[in-house]
Amino acid sequence: MHELSIALSIVDIAEEEVKKNKASSVEEIEIEVGKLSNIQIDSLEFIWDNAVKSSVLEGARRKVNIIPGKARCTVCCTEFTMNEIFDACPDCHDFLNEILEGKELKIKSMTLI
User: Fold this and answer.
1) ∠ CA(68), CA(40), CA(64), 5° rounding?
2) Which residues pair with 72 in a beta bridge?
3) Distances in whole angstroms, Cα of residue 73 to Cα of each of 35, 37, 93, 104
4) What is the three-state SS of the chain?
5) Closest Cα to residue 15, out of 53, 56, 54, 52?
6) What tens digit of pLDDT does each residue of 62-108 get?
7) Are 56 and 19 in contact (CB under 8 A)?
8) Rounded to whole angstroms, how far apart are CA atoms 37 and 20?
């Protein structure tokens, strides 16, 4: 379950930001997760409370935004919504696609207190 290591990395980043800004904790954190990132949101939610226990994120409000997958076909240049990493182009049905969005994992914002 790599979601645990992801959550712990988010804790590390939050603790570093709190220390750098001489704050005491995080009031709210907003995270963006791409639909094509291979991160299981349910698993991340399941382990979150244990991962943030006794950290600056304990008790913080959490907002998770799902970024839809978007790709461009390298054959016909069609841009399209991608639900799975190996979706074919809807126009030419080729599988050679450049992923434009949807593999993200980033902290969009943190409100420190």
Assistant:
1) 60
2) 79, 98
3) 18, 19, 9, 19
4) CHHHHHHHHHHHHHHHHHHHCCCCCEEEEEEEEECCCCCCHHHHHHHHHHHHCCCCCCCCEEEEEEECEEEEECCCCCEEEECCCCCCCCCCCCCCEEEEECCCEEEEEEEEC
5) 56
6) 999 999 999 999 999 999 999 999 999 999 999 999 999 999 999 99
7) no
8) 29
- The highest-level CATH class for domain 2-112 is alpha beta
Tokens encoding 81: 């919504």
* Burial class of residue 101, CB neighbours in 10 A (0-12, 13-18, 19+): middle
Q: What is the pTM of this model?
A: 0.88
Domain boundary assignment for the chain: 2-112
**28 neighbors 111 (Cβ within 8 angstroms):** yes
Contact 96, 82 (CB under 8 A): no
* Token pair recorded at residue 72: 């461009």
